[in-house]
Amino acid sequence: MKILGDPVEVEYNSGTLTVSGRQMKSNIRLFKDLAPVALDKKALEEMGAQKETPAYYMFRNLAETGSKQIQFDITVIPHARIGTEFVKTLGHYHPEAKKGLSFCEVYEVLQGRAHFLLQERKGKSNSTPVSRVLLVRATAGDKIPIPPNFGHVSINPGSEPLILANLVYTDFESNYKDYVSAGGAAYFETIDGSHQKNPFFKSLPPIQVGGLELLPKKITSKKNILSLCRENPGQFDFLIDPAKF
User: C-alpha distances in angstroms, 7 versus 10, 66, 76, 122, 230?
Assistant: First the structure.
């Protein structure tokens, strides 16, 4: 199926992504890789051989963006469940870009429905209290900017594959270990729509549930983020310098 046609043609079919006719390699996260951050670990164990199959696919640096410092990626999260949870990404923070501010990111939903679970901390480790938690609901065409100092998890609550595009600064490595060591995000979202606090965290603010209105920056153009970046890379300078967010 075609998921993008401008400025490059992107097609996805059962774990295979092609960009302008060229098949792209993926980084694969298996179901067993999600064990450290799963709410229902017993259900994961009961999956048996399915634990060795892909939970989601990450395709990196797929096309020119107009800036050598910004890369374009796609993540595909097929519809599935792990016990009482829908399939989600492992979760990660971004490293510090300048004192007190971590790098930002921008997502776009290309297909499906997405829930983005964001949590803010002002320090560099899990010893820093989480000061804010957002659950942002998004659908195809929505652009979701990740503010500085927010870690995030992407959840597929829909009945079809969730396909996400993203723009991010090229030269850094995401921090997954803090989500792993905490046993997951600040909250777990279950398939009935409820949210359970992660007992790792001694105190947590109430979760704010809503849509894009929860985010401090808005991208309202109907053009996809790759087209927008190619036309004017400067409007995404906040990915390089989060002080511009």
Answer: 9, 12, 20, 37, 9
| pLDDT tens for each residue of 104-150 | 999 999 999 999 999 999 888 899 999 999 999 999 999 999 999 99
Query: Domains in the chain: how many in total?
Result: 1
The residue ranges of DSSP E strands in the chain, in sequence order, are 2-4, 10-13, 16-19, 22-24, 27-30, 54-59, 70-77, 81-82, 85-86, 96-98, 101-102, 105-111, 113-121, 130-139, 143-146, 150-155, 162-169, 187-189, 195-197, 207-210
CATH code for position 50: 2.60.120.10
Nearest to 201 by CA among 119, 105, 104: 119
